[in-house]
Amino acid sequence: MKTRLAVSRRLRSTPYTPRIESLGVSDYSIVNHTILPKGFGRSVEEDFWHLCEHVQMWDVSCQRQVEIQGEDAAKLVQMMTPRDLRNAQIGQCLYAPLIDQNACMLNDPVILKLAEDHYWLSIADSDVLLWAKGLMVGYQLNVNIKEPDVSPLAVQGPKSDALMAQVFGSEVSDIAFFRFKKLDFKGRPLIVARSGYSKQGGFEIYLDDSSLGLDLWDTLWQAGEPFNVAPGSPNLIERVEAGLLSYGNEFTSENNPLECGFKKYCCFDDDLQYIGKQALLKINQEGIKQQIRGIRFDGEKCPPCASTWPLTHEKSEAGFISTAIWSPKLKCNVALGMVASEFWNQGQSVVVHCSDGSQRQGEVVLLP
Ligand code: THG
Predict the structure, then answer these.
(1) Which of 62, 110, 122 to mutate to test the pocket of ligand 1 (most atoms within 8 A of CB)?
(2) How far is the CA of 102 from the centre of ligand 1 (A)?
(3) What share of the chain is helix, strand, coil (3-state, %, to 5)?
(4) Rounded distance, CA 106 to CA 301, Å?
(5) pLDDT digits over 2-50, tens only?
(6) How far apart are CA 188 and CA 256, in angstroms?
(7) Residues 311 and 365 in one domain
(8) Measured between alpha carbons, how far is 232 from 155 in angstroms, rounded to an integer?
(9) Which residues line ligand 1 (CB under 6 A)?
(10) Average model confidence (pLDDT) for the chain?
(11) Which pick of 223, 242, 261, 291 has the fewest CB atoms within 10 Å?
(12) Is residue 295, in this structure, part of any structural domain at all?
């Protein structure tokens, strides 16, 4: 029997959903209370090769924006993250951990600086809106906070520059990595960033008017026909090989940013204040006991990794894997997981205990 998802107003559809449905969506996930198309009847491997060779359009409307605007906007956004935003520029995208007072991870959004007093937090799967509103009330900050009508559409893959130039003009090629510009779409300026949840290159279009969704989709789709465009989604093989982490999978609110490898996004300068700084300083001084690593392991294609799989070394617990999949490029299974400090060095041998009962010989690798 085919299981279906009962979509309601609460599990939100997107401006692109009618096209996603007519293109034969076969799998949905739910992120930020919004449906995320994950498959179109092809295998993850087929989607992977297509993404590496051509161009795909992804409905990533579930990357919801938390808009923070007003006199205290910069202050509030800085309170929420250990990343130093003092030199952030208008037009910049910044990947940033969000932490609570205990330095526990709350989210890892891409922050867009739209103006000195205007930010979007393009969030992963947790309710940042409520945390931000709580801080606004508790600290009596002069800001407006809302989730605007913004539905990102990602164009990813090596032919994305060529496709995007057809619709937005040659200006797209001037957008640097993790920068955005406002580009005209039928008389309407849309934010277009060179970013996205893959390492194959590409853009994210932040459509801020749902009523234009089908027009935007159709225009890109038509322009993409010569480039072999296909519908797609964040690809598990590509994401693991690229070392792109996922909140709720590789790390949760149980983890701190140092365990996630986000030290480069943590500022400890005396003159920068943010929530959780004291706790984070203490963790940094004491040193962490586990950190996210890549793991390669032997054997046949592993089963889908829907929970965590234990890692051991000579009967000692060594951590766990949170995401695993067969890599057709590397011809082995590849995974991401949290590895204890005694075992986190590159080349360390570990045993992976898969959910099908098999035990596979594996090796720890550093993230790219
Ligand atoms: N795009 C946008 N919003 C998002 C995501 C996205 N929100 C949810 C989720 N993805 C957040 N997670 C990530 C994880 C990694 C990256 C982006 C968002 C990423 N990282 C690059 C890297 O690790 O090499 C670049 C980081 C940097 O240079 O700052 O792209 O995909 N809009």
Answers:
(1) 110
(2) 23
(3) 25, 35, 40
(4) 33
(5) 788 898 999 999 999 999 999 999 999 999 999 999 999 999 999 999 9
(6) 41
(7) yes
(8) 9
(9) 63, 95, 108-110, 122-124, 152, 178, 195-197, 204, 244-245
(10) 97
(11) 242
(12) yes
CATH number at 47 reads: 3.30.1360.120
Q: Model-level pTM greater than 0.90?
A: yes
CB 339 within 8 A of CB 322: no
The two structure tokens encoding residue 277: 């700084």
Residue 144 lies in a domain: no
Low-confidence ranges of the chain (pLDDT < 50): none
Give the CATH number for residue 273: 3.30.70.1400
Is residue 142 domain-resident? no
Q: Can you state the angle between helices 128-138 and 73-80, rounded to 10 degrees?
A: 120
230 and 160 both lie in a single domain: yes
Give 247's DSSP letter.
B
CA of 183 to the centre of ligand 1 (A): 21
Residue 90 lies in domain: 65-129+256-287
Query: Same structural domain for residues 223 and 266?
Result: no
CA–CA separation, 121 and 98 (whole Å): 10
Atom of ligand 1 minimally distant from the CA of 112: 32
Total of domains in the chain: 3
pLDDT tens for each residue of 201-259? 999 999 999 999 999 999 999 999 999 999 999 999 999 999 999 999 999 999 999 99
Cα distances (angstroms) measured from residue 353 to each of 126, 288, 318, 327, 362: 29, 24, 11, 18, 10
How many other CB atoms sit within 10 Å of the CB of residue 348? 18
Domain co-membership, 154 together with 236: yes
